[in-house]
């Protein structure tokens, strides 16, 4: 039985949505002498831990064509927070063997991520095939479509009748726990109702849950529902259970459905045992919701900005003990965190131009302290080309600036908020990654900046590096208590904080460390985005992918006036 002690409904792992991948090719190489090629496409996915490519599936063979439109679809789980590497290999099938090594006519291959496919205009990506030196191998077209049953949510209400009395001085305090079944026969908690005090005939509040959380899109998969009597000490008394399926639940919109609550141990002991009460589904309403991928397909761009801490507490960058030390053998924690987050987000930004800022350093030539300076040294155009460009600008900054202090977060938050305030139609969403090593010196101003930003289309990721306690950063993460400033509470929880040390792989596998970090800090982004657009009634654009451009240089806020003199 799964543990109930620390379960929170929103903390349960909800399966990713699923996307259907369609493959077409144009102008493939003709490898047959007396006819055209007979192409087949093989899809490979890559494991995170050891970077091993594994065959995921194959299309059908289409005879005698250089322009195949394959009918077979690949169904993939989609996670925004993961880098899902794909490889498409094309072969000319010239025997009936399933062993690809026996098919000598290799036609080319294409590498990409699933994020690149869904983030392309209209979720359609066309790329050249590679793999045969000196040959033009043609192109492959990959299209992604979210499966319809992943969009469904269900609003349900249950009541109980004549449940077993468990309390000595009263009745029972019943609640329901829902579990979805996994393919390996295990169960995972996916929802828990509220407790209704002192009754054997409870009526629980209606609740809404994504269908994929209940059954991962399989309408006939078992759903187990357990009934408990709540106890203050956490040792909740088991009343009984019953099983159903989403298909059975969905009939509740036209009829009442009643289940007997059974306690197997009680049934074994008592010959006349019938049940431990009943549970009735009072209502069931199915809603098809607009999803994160609908907005991405409609043209929403994710704009990524990074801000790096250059305060003296990081240590002298020329010393191996420094958090900014550039080892010739591996990336430092700042570079690892930047790459982990940036390499995933960049798939959703069409021009791959990222503003990169630093704070807490003395700048040349006059040594003034700045808490908002461009890593590339250009205040009029702080954009770097791709994540590699950001890393290069970061390394160059370490050679030219002098680490100083104090640690101010509010200037870089306000910097991104200025741009986010200009775009309120859902066409752009802004993500700020702050990487820092310790105590925040402008906590009151930072809180105010976050409260102001919570009404804008933006999210903030804070990664703490080094051995510090990070108490202030934990406070900014509004998971426990919604952040407030001057009596105003944040409209949304937009901050996610993690300490980098929690994700370091003990065996030194940096790829695994980055994957774990990205998974945690990015998992909330789609929901934070949806909270923003839904609260403002913004619908996704159904036209082709709109062209979103960065603000022209004339709109880029001049950084000089905000640089702080100490």
The backbone outline, from C-alpha atoms, is globular
Q: What name is given to the CATH topology of the largest domain? A: Rossmann fold
How many individual β-strands?
A: 28
Structural class: alpha+beta
| CA(first)-CA(last) distance | 59 Å
Radius of gyration: 28 Å
Low-confidence blocks of residues: 5-13, 543-566
Task: Give the domain tally.
Answer: 3
Task: Assign the CATH superfamily of the largest domain.
Answer: von Willebrand factor, type A domain
By oligomeric state, this entry counts as single chain
Biggest sheet record: 7 strands, mixed
Strand residues, percent: 25-35%
Mean pLDDT: 88
Task: Note down, in words, how this protein is organized.
The chain has 566 residues and is an alpha+beta fold. The protein has three domains: 17-148, C2 domain (Immunoglobulin-like), CATH 2.60.40; 152-288, C2 domain (Immunoglobulin-like, Sandwich); 293-354 and 391-541, von Willebrand factor, type A domain (Rossmann fold, 3-Layer(aba) Sandwich), CATH 3.40.50. Helices cover 19% and strands 31% of the residues. The chain contains twelve helices and 28 strands. The strands form seven sheets. Strands 17, 18, 21, 22, 24, 25 and 28 form a seven-stranded mixed β-sheet that branches. Strand 24 (428-436), helix 9 and strand 25 (458-464) form a beta-alpha-beta unit. The longest helix has 15 residues, at 386-400. The protein is globular. The termini are far apart.
